[in-house]
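Reviewer 2 asked us to include a model.

Predict the structure of this chain.
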Amino acid sequence: MAFGLANVHCGARRIQAYEGAARPANELAVLRSHRNPVRWVMIEGIDGRPVPSGKMRAQEITVAPGSHTVDESLAEGDTQSTSNATVSFSAEAGRSYRVHGESVKEGFWTEMRKNTIGGRCHWVAWIEEEPSGKVVGGKKPTD
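Predicted model (structure tokens):
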């Protein structure tokens, strides 16, 4: 399977991650990266294949319905994940999903170092269905 550039709209780059010609939206699912001013969870790969990266990293990926594995990475402030997390989920046609991640709080001195000079972090990843927020893959941390 090769990734194809499906379209570009409103600054978001959408990649087609299924075989064959473009299909109607109601026959596909959309997987989105999570980005806010503090945290960016990036989609690095899907079903064992790396997602094209670079300056215009994909923010949306269309997938066929069915089971998928997603490789995610996390950038949070001046820290970044030490490795990708792999999360499995089952996509349904016509639905949207968003990848999420959060760094795991570590000891006082480790947190102090990350907050002052940056560094790498350990983290957890999950996927939520939109707009319900229902976790469909991975495990959302609890406080």
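The chain has one domain: 4-138. Residues 1-10 have pLDDT under 50 and may be disordered. We have added this to the supplementary material.
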